[in-house]
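We were asked to recover a plausible sequence for a given structure. The inputs and outputs are reproduced exactly as logged, with field labels preserved.

PROBLEM: sequence recovery
POSITIONS: 106
GIVEN STRUCTURE:
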């Protein structure tokens, strides 16, 4: 059955999709994609070369950045225990009790 609130052939959004606000990621991608000089290298190419150069010189932060991007960051296990150090049985707590415990833990 057709929806009586919609008229066939008439847009429900005549103004179209609203324009997006300024997004930093988009601006960075645009800037990093710009070429430097006439050799066809981009800003991003220059940054990557610098990162690799630093890593080859032993800069551990640069090495970590490369591995984090290639392999992904390792999962970090987090453990939450009860007030006495025993396991916290979340299934038996209400949402309010869980939120209260998390507030006190931080």
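RECOVERED SEQUENCE:
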């Amino acid at each position: 059955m057709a929806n009586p609130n919609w008229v066939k052939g008439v847009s429900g959004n005549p103004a179209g999709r609203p324009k997006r606000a300024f997004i930093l990621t988009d601006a960075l991608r645009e800037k990093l994609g710009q070429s430097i000089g006439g050799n066809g290298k981009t800003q991003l190419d220059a940054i990557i070369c610098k990162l690799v150069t630093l890593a080859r010189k032993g800069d551990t932060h640069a090495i970590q950045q490369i591995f984090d991007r290639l392999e992904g960051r390792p999962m970090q296990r987090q453990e939450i225990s009860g007030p006495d150090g025993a396991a916290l049985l979340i299934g038996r707590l209400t949402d309010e009790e869980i939120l209260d415990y998390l507030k006190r833990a931080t």
